[in-house]
Amino acid sequence: MPPLRVLVVGASIAGPTAAYWFARAGAKVTVIERFPHLRTNGQNIDIRTVGVTVMRKMPGMEEAVRAKTIPLKCIAAVRSDGRPFGVISTTGNPDQQSLVSEFEIYRGDLSQILYDRTHAHPNITYIFGEQVASIQQHDQADGPVKVEFASGSPTMEFDLVVSCDGATSRTRAIGLGVGMRDYLEPTGTWAAFFSAKQDLLDGNNKMGKAYNAVGGRIIAAGPDPSGVSRVVLMKRYAQKDSSATQPFRDAMNQGGDALRQFVAQTYRGAGWKCDEVIKDMMEAEDFYASEIVHVKVPRLSKGRFVLVGDAGYAASTGTGTSLAMAGAYVLAGEVCKHKGDLAGALQGYEDVMRPLIDDMQKVPPLLPVFFTPQTAWGLWLRNMVFAFVCWSGILSLTQKFFSGAFAGTERYQLPQYEWQE
Ligand SMILES: Cc1cc2nc3c(=O)[nH]c(=O)nc-3n(C[C@H](O)[C@H](O)[C@H](O)COP(=O)(O)OP(=O)(O)OC[C@H]3O[C@@H](n4cnc5c(N)ncnc54)[C@H](O)[C@@H]3O)c2cc1C
Ligand SMILES: *[C@@H]1O[C@H](CO)[C@@H](O)[C@H](O)[C@H]1NC(C)=O
Predict the structure, then answer these.
(1) Cβ of 114: how many Cβ atoms within 10 Å?
(2) Which ranges carry the FAD-binding domain (predicted)?
(3) In terms of Cα–Cα distance, which of 272, 194, 197 is closest to 233?
């Protein structure tokens, strides 16, 4: 049987992980990425639960990740004058993770590690600066598909198209024949990420800092080995519908500096070091901002088209990276298991992933309110509760309460597959 020809769209986390496992399944893989190079910006992401399981199945991967994990040991919540009033720390046991994960790594570093493990493989080809223009089913209903590209690559035939191009995936709209915002569930939240030149952590590279202001605004800073502070500014609106974040999207569509101006305006005068941080943001080279959404599709595949990672099941609960890694592994594994039967493989992928997705997309009911209170009263109450919880050492209890999103590795089992390579 000739090797399966697989097109993977997107080279962030899900894409390179899918390329790795499809090569192990004996496929010939082409990965296309819309950007002209690997995107290495972004803030810290967590590898948890099934993400840890998949990482440990890739030889040498855990060591590579450990070499790049952020030295962060705890996060201090600070008052407007910078005084901390509560501290959350890691558990030190990766199998029993807390709010601060043991495998906390910058998104760009994880993406680079995955790319480094795949780009020289003889059966994997990366093409940067390319995206899908159209996908056409061949005459025979169950045959391969013909893919046209937008930036000059010749039209090619593939047995399977795997869309890994993120929550606002354009390829999803093409592959499923739906609108761009179909299946997006807004959370009424956006976030901006960048590096600040100044050290917001006063030389302590083990402790991050987080500061809340009214109106659901949070600013958090984490250490970076190179000496800068990695900053995230997040804003959660009281109403969750799409209209809340419309001004954010309008600013994004205007391009240029409009989005930075919009973020700056939201944070100016908010307290702590916000005003100085905004100055750094205006000049940051690695500025990245996005609306935070959930993606919920009725079915993960259609014909020869399938979604993996945020494109198919973005979760706003910090579990997106782990779900993406698990999805890539399971899809390639099911293809290996159902040799010559793609429909069976796609059904297997659906059956294994669905319960995992449903569970990991659940937002613990109080979590957003806890992290981004809207009102001065809510903020005061949150701070009191938080300070008390930290002081009295019952934080582990709180973490058990939020355990849906922060469970250990043993909570979910992934199937074992027999790989070809
Ligand atoms: C630059 C960047 C920074 C991020 N920063 C953070 C962060 O700080 N914190 C956090 O929690 N999450 C962040 N994320 C999201 C996080 O990576 C994902 O939630 C999670 O890891 C799942 O990854 P994914 O590979 O499914 O999707 P994503 O990480 O969203 O990757 C999608 C990839 O597809 C590419 N792409 C998009 N459209 C097309 C197209 N039409 N054709 C080809 N390629 C396309 C994108 O450039 C990107 O490389 C960031 C994502 C990106 C792209
Ligand atoms: C590449 O794919 C071919 C089948 O097309 C296979 O025989 C070969 O072992 C693969 N190479 C590697 C390094 O996996």
Answers:
(1) 28
(2) 5-332
(3) 194
- The enclosing domain of 109 has a CATH number of 3.50.50.60
Beta-carbon contacts of 97 under 8 Å, excluding residues fewer than 6 positions away, are: 46, 48, 49, 90, 91, 406, 407, 408
DSSP state of 287: -
Of 172, 181, 180, 183, which is closest to residue 9 (Cα–Cα)? 172
Segment 282-332, tens digit of pLDDT = 999 889 999 989 999 999 999 999 999 999 999 876 788 999 999 999 999
119 in the same domain as 69 = yes
pLDDT at res. 187 = 85
Find all residues with CB under 8 Å of 184, minimum gap 6, and list them: 167, 168, 293, 294, 295
* Ligand 1 surroundings by CB, under 6 angstroms: 9-15, 32-35, 39, 41-43, 45, 107, 131, 164-166, 170-171, 193, 288, 309-310, 320-321, 324
Is residue 203 packed enough to be buried (19+ CB in 10 Å), middle (13-18) or exposed (0-12)? exposed
pTM given for the model: 0.89
- Residue range(s) defining the domain that contains residue 264: 184-293
What is the distance between the alpha carbons of residues 40 and 112, in angstroms, rounded to a whole number?
7
